[in-house]
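Escalation from tier 1.

The customer reports that the assembly of two entities below gives different C-alpha cells on two consecutive runs. Tier 1 could not reproduce it. I'm attaching the input and our single run for tier 2 to review.
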Amino acid sequence: MDISVRHLAKEFDGFRALHDVSLDIRSGELIALLGPSGSGKTTLLRLIAGLEFPSAGTIRFGQEDASLKSVQERNVGFVFQHYALFKHMSVADNIGFGLSVRPRATRPSRAEIRRRAAELLDLVQLPGLGERYPAQLSGGQRQRVALARALAIEPRVLLLDEPFGALDAKVRRELRRWLRELHDRTGHTTVFVTHDQDEALELADRVVVMSQGRIEQVGSAADIHDRPASPFVFSFVGSSNILPVEVRGGEIAYRGTVLGRTEDADGPRSLFVRPYDLELVSDGAPGIGGTVSLARRSGGSRIIEIETPDDGRIELELPAEAPGSVGDRIAVRPRRWHLFEAAASRADAPVTGG
Amino acid sequence: MALEAVHMPAADATSASPRAPRPVTTESPLVKWLLTAVALAFLAFFLFLPLVAVFAEAFRNGLDAYFAALVEPDALAAIWLTLIVAAISVPLNLVFGLAAAWAIAKHDFKGKSLLLTLIDLPFSVSPVIAGLVFVLLFGAQGYLQPLVAWTGIKIVFAIPGIVLATVFVTLPFVARELIPLMQEQGTGDEEAAVSLGANGWQTFWRVTLPNVKWALLYGVLLCNARAMGEFGAVSVISGKIRGFTNTMPLQIEILYNEYAFSAAFAVSTLLAGLAFVTLGIKAVLEARYAGDIAATGRGRH
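Tier 1 run:
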C-alpha cells in the first residue's frame, strides 16, 4: 500500500508540532522516521494511523483519501511504545482481539481466531505462549506479542512507535534484525519511529530525518551519511566537529591554514568533520595545531580532544595505537568533510558538535 | 587483609560498643513496643470497646429480645427502606462516578479542575446542609416546588428526597477511587483497542472497564457503606416518619431516645455487621487490586 502525505500540518493548542510535511512511502518499504524528541516524528506516525487528525494537508492510502477516515476504517497495525497489551487478557486473546471485535458478518469463528493467534505466535517465534498473561512475559516477548496483535488484523500498513525504546541494548539488536527478517518475509509497508540513528540507518530502506516539525532529509543510510542535506542531519547522525572556515579562490582556510579545496563560492563557511575523518599530520605539514586536553580509550579506538588556540575543541577518533597524551602539541587535518553556510547565517545550525 | 576482616566483627562485639548493627530504618525494641502499644491502646479504646458495647447491649436481654427487636414492623420497614435507598443511590453514583472519572482521566476540556473540585464538595459540606439544600429546593416554598406540584411526585419527607440526599453525600466515592487509577493508566490501551478496529462501546466494555474493575468494586463498596450509614442529610429530609421514612440510622436514634436501648443496639448490630462485611470484602479486594496495579506493567522499564 503506497502512502502519500501532502502538506501535512498539525497544531496542538497553538503549538505547531508539524509544519507542511510531504512524504511518499512506497508499497512494501521499511521506512524510519528519525529525529530528536519534539521533532514531530511520533505526531506524523499518529496522523498516518488516524490516532490524530491533521490541521491541514492530506494523507492518501493508495488512491483513497484517508485524511478524515477514522482509525478503525484505516485498517492499520499500530505497535505502541509501551506495547499497550491488555493485561487482563491472555496473550492469545490479545492477539485475537482485533478479529473478535469485527462485526458479526465478517468475524471469524472462535476456533478460527484461536488458530490465527497460534499461527501468529509461531510467526513471532513465541510458540505455545498463548495462555500466558502479559505480566508473565519479558519486555522483548511483549514487544513481539504487540506486533503479532497488530498483524492479526491483516493491516494495510504497519506503524511502530519507538518499537525497541524500552528494551535493553542486547535485546534491541536481536529484535532489530528479527524485525527486518519479518518485514522481508511478510512484505508489509512499515513505518517506524526512532530517535536512535543506528537503529534507523541499519534497519530501514529509507530514513526520514526530522527536526522541529519539518523533514530535513529523506534518503538511504548512505545518502544520509555521505550527503547530509543540512548541518542538523550531519550532527544528528554522528559526532561532529564544526570549524569556522573561509573559502577563497577554491581553497578552504582555517585561521590561515589551507585544509583543502572546494568548488564553493568565496565566503565564510562552517566545516563539519567527523572525529574519525581527521588524521594526524607530521611536523611541518599544514594542519590545525592544538594541545591535547583529553585522551581516553573507547572500544577499539582512542578518543583525543585537542584545544585549538582560539579556544575551540576538536574531537578525534584515532586507532588505538596512535600517539598523543595530555599536554602534547599535535596537528590534525580533515580527510573528508562537509561545508555548510556559516553558522551565523543559518538559524537552525547546531551550536555544538557531538 | 582477609583474615583481619573476618575477625573484625568478633573484636567489635567484645569492645566498648556491644550493640549489633541495626538496619538504618529500624528503631530500638523499646521504641517499637511503645509505638505498637500506643496504636493498640488507641484502637482498643476507639474501635474495639464501642463495638463490644454495641453487641453486649444488644444481647443484654437475651437472644429472643434481640430477634424480636429486629422483626418489629418499624425496624423491618427501616431495614427495607435502607436497602431500597442504597439500591437506588449506589448504581446512580456508579454511573456518575464512572462517567466523571472517564471524562477527567481520558479527556482534556475546559473546567476540568473545577469539576474535580466539585466532585469533592460533598466531602467538605456538612451532611446536614446537604439535607437542607434539598428541603429548600423541593420543600413547600422551594424553588422547584412547581415541578413537584406538576409531576405529583412527593420528594421531601419521602423516599425520593432520601435518595437525593444520599446520592449527594456519597457522590465522591466511586469517582475518587477511579480517577487516580484511570489517570495513571492513560489512554494507551484504548488507542490500541480502536487501532485494532474496536468501536467505542467495545473498547469500554472489553478494555476500559476490565482495567478498573477492582477499583470500581472498591468504590462501590465504600459508597454502599456510606449510603446505608448516612444520618445527617437523611434525618433532615426524611421527616422521620416511623415505618415510612426512617432508615436504619434514624430508627436507631429514635429507639435510643425512647430508652429502648436493647432494641436500638440490636438494629445497631446490623450496621456494625455491615461494616464488618465491608471491611472483609475490602481486604479481599485490596489484595486483588494491589496485584492488579502491579500487573499493569507500566513504568516498570
